Amino acid sequence: MIIDVHTHIWGGDYEGSTRELLRACDMFGIAKLHVSGLKSHYSDEAEVASLNADVYRFMKEKPDLVSGYCYVNPAHANALDVLKRGIETYGMNGMKLWVATFCDDPRVFPLVETCIEANIPILIHSFHKAVGQLKYETTGPQVANLANRYPNAKLLMAHFGGNCYHGIKAVRGCRNVWHDFSGTPFRRDDVDYAVERVGVDRIVFGSDMPITYLVNFGQVEEADLSPEEKERIYYKNALELFDPNYKVG
Questions:
Q1: Which residue in 109, 141, 98, 115 sits closest to 6, CA to CA?
Q2: How far apart are CA 173 and CA 96, in angstroms?
Q3: If we measure between CA atoms, which residue out of 59, 78, 77, 60 comes closest to residue 69?
């Protein structure tokens, strides 16, 4: 079984995005998708509402397959209301932070506290770049700041921090941080390095679909992992992260 914890509906392309996601599920036997909506880097309130409505629509169309992240822009005055609507009305079971603010911006704190109360994880875009770093793009040290401030929060640092040798090093001691390797530079040994540094129990499978899938799958298949370790990455860790009643046996 495979659970993909990092997929997207691109704003303005609902039909194309969902078609590609469903096609991948059929081709590769993906059992569960965790989906967020994205479009512009610094979205306005109307765009955030539209993106979350798209994810909710997909959740209703495919209730056994799709779970949703509530995408929020912490710079908006209504961010907390957006999150509560996503959890209470839409039934979303995660929150997504992108690049509108750093993840350790104080405006994020009330959102994190709400996620702790709801016992849902927070997917944090984190990407360290040599060139082209966005103005408020979170990196590993900022994830560590948030993790240390809120040790009860369940944080999912996306993309291995964009550079696993930078991002994972920063959060190595934070037991409340999980990792996906979606959209990474696709180095052969990234997964091996991450397992060595943080343990296999803190790594979950994510692809960044509809951008890519097979390369991330290949990273797991080519890693020096036992069948049991691959199972943890492919689905067991995700079940434990999203389902408070599930414990890996």
A1: 98
A2: 23
A3: 59
CB 158 within 8 A of CB 125: yes
Which helix H or strand E contains 240, and what residues bound it? Answer: helix 237-242
| Amino acid, single-letter form, for residue 208 | D
How far does Cα 174 stand from its chain's mean position? 17
What lies within 8 Å, CB to CB, of 41 at 6+ separation is 98, 99, 100, 134
pLDDT per residue rounded down to tens, the chain (249 residues): 999 999 999 999 999 999 999 999 999 999 999 999 999 999 999 999 999 999 999 999 999 999 999 999 999 999 999 999 999 999 999 999 999 999 999 999 999 999 999 999 999 999 999 899 999 999 999 999 999 999 999 999 999 999 889 999 999 999 999 999 998 666 778 999 999 999 999 999 999 999 888 889 999 999 999 999 999 999 999 999 999 787 776
Secondary structure (DSSP) of 135-148 = TT---HHHHHHHHH
Six token digits for residue 146: 């948030």
Return the SS3 of 192.
helix
**How far apart are alpha carbons 205 and 4 in whole angstroms?**
6
Helix (H), strand (E) at residue 95: strand 94-97
Integer-rounded Cα Rg, in Å, for the chain is 16
